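User: Teach me something about this protein's shape.
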Amino acid sequence: MSKAIGKKNAAYYTWGDNCSSWVLNDTAVLSVKQEQIPAGAREQLHYHQHASQFFFVLKGVATFYVDDEMMEVKEQEGISVTNGRKHFVVNNSDEPIEFLVISQPTTLNDRINI
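Assistant: First, the predicted structure itself:
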């Protein structure tokens, strides 16, 4: 029987500008992570050759830049980013933001920073 997984028992790592990631599922075909970006922080512009991603905001407002477009995504909203599209997320607020990032297939060895 599978066990329930969450932030308390998931594998954890930090990335980027003091951002946090909890690995909820990571297989060759599917990755699910819960991530947190501190106030005022952002990630680096990048793209994935193979993985398409869906980001779902759990807390706060995330500002996504995809190719040359900017979009604010609020709590309980999501955005899809297909493979090959240059993107990054920014936290322009005074509070941390949290979101799920669901990738198919996994992003392992599939991130190209720009």
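Now, about its shape. The mean pLDDT is 96. The chain has no helices and eleven strands. If you'd like, I can walk through any region in more detail.
User: That's plenty for now, thanks!
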